[in-house]
Write a structure and sequence with these properties.
This protein is mainly β and about 375 residues long. It contains 6 helices and 26 strands. Strands 1, 19, 20, 21, 22 and 23 form a 6-stranded mixed β-sheet that branches. A 4-stranded antiparallel β-sheet has the order 2-26-25-24. A 4-stranded antiparallel β-sheet has the order 3-4-5-6, with no helix packed on it. The chain is globular.
Amino acid sequence: MQMHEKNSIKHVEPTVLVDTVNGKLPQWELSENLSTDFFSEEVDSISFIPLETNDSVLVGQVSGIFYLGDRLLIVDANKAQRIFVFDMQGKYQYSIGSKGEGPGQYASLNQVRVDKDTINVFDWMKWKYICYDIEGNVLYEHAFHKKMPEVLIRLENQTFVGAYAGYYEKYPFHLSWINECDSIVDTGLPIRNPHPMPAGTLQYTLDGTLLFYHSLCDTIYEISKRRIIPKYSLGLYKEGEVNAFLSRTKHMGKGEYLKTLFDSRDGDITNYFSLFETPDAWLVEHQKGPFVYFSVVGKDEQTRNYIRTDMNSRKLYIPFSMMDVKGNWLLSYIDENFQMKIGEDNRSLFLNQLVSEEDRSLLNNYDAETQNPIICMFHLKHKQ
């Protein structure tokens, strides 16, 4: 009974409603004609950048990699708790911001994103939002006086939009528009999930459109100051599948729910997905049960789907986590976690796909315990 009361939400109407769709949304078919030949079919070249290693620039754990003009930005949110900038040869240049209590400093790096030529940090410990330029100068800083949504992005005119990681009496909406006085000025509820995870993702497109998506929703939305517009349908779910899952799990505690959501043996729901955009395509990664998939959704409406990971057979056909995209280049990395996950069989499969003897030697001689990560850059073939 206590759990039921915790997950019971009073009915409150949002102030921003989801636009009505006229006709059928463009649908991405992400589960058809699966292949395991991503590298041979999609990639025309691979480049590796060993990051300089010295005592003053030790990357303990990669949290994010971004292109920053003609440089690379590496985020280590956990061990070093720093934002490093390297040139395209891997030589360390400088850091963005620093940990501390003063102006322009952060206490934690919970959310770091690069939008055009700005670096945006959202610090949950101090509920502070900081925007830096590419040289590390502070362009904007705002400290909130109360708890904010877990995912937050700044819009024009000092307005923020945020996504909450769950629904409670105090926060009955998934999206909120917030002003600099920390007041909620608008609310939206494109989906409903009675659990505190996940919050969903807010992400800009190449043309500056802000998207919102959530792993338990088949629709990607465009978000503006006063509108929620359905843009794409993923084609991941059968009719009623998500509602059945939420109904079955709504009274579960957090631990039981997460175990069910991320069950890698026979999971019955897509537990996450992420998007990257190139000039030619959308790249979509998603997981369901023992499989992780990676799809190339061409803007010419041709879709090619690949198995990235098959946990049943312990195969990593694409042994990389994609971190960022610029043009047709994908960014990833090799570190000690990669070395442990890939295993000798998968390692041999990947190394055999490398044309350059120099690259094979670089990877074979890489010492993950004493060296900074190696950045991997994959160039996608241009499709006619």
